[in-house]
Amino acid sequence: MVKKILIMIHLVSSIYAENAFERNCVSCHQKLPASLQEMFKRYLLIYSSESNVKAGIKHYLKYPSKDISRMSDLFIETYGIKKKTSLSDDELDDIVDSYWDKYKVFGKLK
Questions:
Q1: Who is most buried in 11, 19, 25, 89, counting CB within 10 A?
Q2: Within 10 A of 108 (CB to CB), how many other CB atoms are there?
Q3: Inter-residue contact 83 to 64 (CB < 8 Å)
Q4: Is the separation of the CB atoms in 50 and 93 below 8 Å?
Q5: Is the dihedral of CA 59, 63, 68, 69 positive or negative?
Q6: Residue 74 lies in a domain
Q7: Domain that holds residue 91
């Protein structure tokens, strides 16, 4: 019984995180010329590891600035810097985890 409850909680939280990612990230980014996957690649090239990529993304979302943006100057001049996130730390963790899971290349290469 306890296992069933834990599985249900995990499934519900996974669905919520995916919906939160779609709702909070994809809806705006689909209008930009650089895809979320392209932005992910930029973070991966700079930060290398899962923990560093996630920390870099979370830091940018909490304290966005031109100095720490991974986008080109032309992109920033055209589209600007995003506004500071209003998401809680837990929501942000779930969304960044979903983002990582969606675009990571580790374990997908054959």
A1: 25
A2: 7
A3: yes
A4: no
A5: positive
A6: yes
A7: 2-103
Single-letter code of the amino acid located at 109: L
- Rounded to two decimals, the pTM is 0.74
pLDDT for 34-86, tens place per residue?
889 999 999 999 998 999 999 999 999 999 999 999 888 999 999 999 899 99
Compute how many other C-beta atoms are within 10 angstroms of the C-beta atom of residue 92.
19
**Phi/psi at 66 (5° precision):** -65, -35
In a domain, 110, yes or no: no
Quote the crossing angle between the two packed helices 50-62 and 36-47, to the nearest 10°.
120
Contacts of 29 (CB under 8 A, 6+ apart): 35, 36, 39
Residue (of 58, 84, 83, 56) closest to 70 by Cα position:
56
